[in-house]
Amino acid sequence: MKMQVDSAEKLLEIIEEKDRKIAELEQQVQWFISQIRLAKHKQFGVSSEKTGDLQLSIFNEAESSADITIPEPKLTEVQAHYRKRTRLTTDKLPKDLPVEVIEHELPVEECICPDCGSGLHTMGRETREELKVIPAKAVIIRHVRHVYACRNCEGTSDHVPIVKADMPEPVIKGGFASPDTIAHIAVQKFMMASPLYRQEQEWKQNGILLSRQTMSNWLIKASEKWLEPIYEEMKHRLCEHEVLHADDYRNISIIETGLQISEWTGY
Prior knowledge:
Helices cover 42% and strands 7% of the residues. The protein has helices spanning 2-44, 53-59, 61-65, 151-156, 179-191, 196-205, 212-239; strands spanning 75-78, 81-84, 147-149, 162-164, 252-254, 259-261. The strands form three sheets. The protein has a two-stranded antiparallel ribbon. It has a two-stranded antiparallel sheet with strand order 3-4. Strands 5-6 form a two-stranded antiparallel ribbon. Helix 6 packs across helix 7 (212-239). It starts with a helix and ends in a 6-residue tail after the last strand.
């Protein structure tokens, strides 16, 4: 009887020990999962799966940065036209922007004085300006290469020479990407911090089905073919100097070699 009690107590101790180890292992697993999520977040940046306060801060960006206590600039009448008394120095429009003028006039049949019925004439103009943004548009560039042959040789000779017009090679062989498109995708991703899945949505809104996988392939192939040779040449020329003074993230300028990269993002 005593042996059975001792065996039962040992089994209970073994079970308790295993339960303790299982609890410790579960805590370790949870810790590793949290570390993996944190590492992924640091590596890939903004994620489309973010929720909570951070997501609300994205949608409430305008509300969070606005100050409703600041009044609109007041207008002061000066010689039959209106001029803004003050303008915020941080908000300026470039002087070289094209200007589209829209004239607002009364119809000819309404240019009649309401008191005496005589004709009205323009005595002044009220002017206000608006900033109009025209979204980027996509076009298809169709390259047509002309192939030439000699009619005289076609009729009299057994050999007809074929001459082709010059045509630029594609930036990626077998692809339909143009240098402008790849540059746009790269700028949006690395400078404007717009991930490829978001760019995919923007293309779709414009009626163009362009997957993030295709854009990723374009960036990789373009960097391997066009950017890496420049990088290697810059590295070779830099290593020829005994002393270098450069910033890895901003305005790397190599005056002696004539190579310059501005606003390097570090990606």
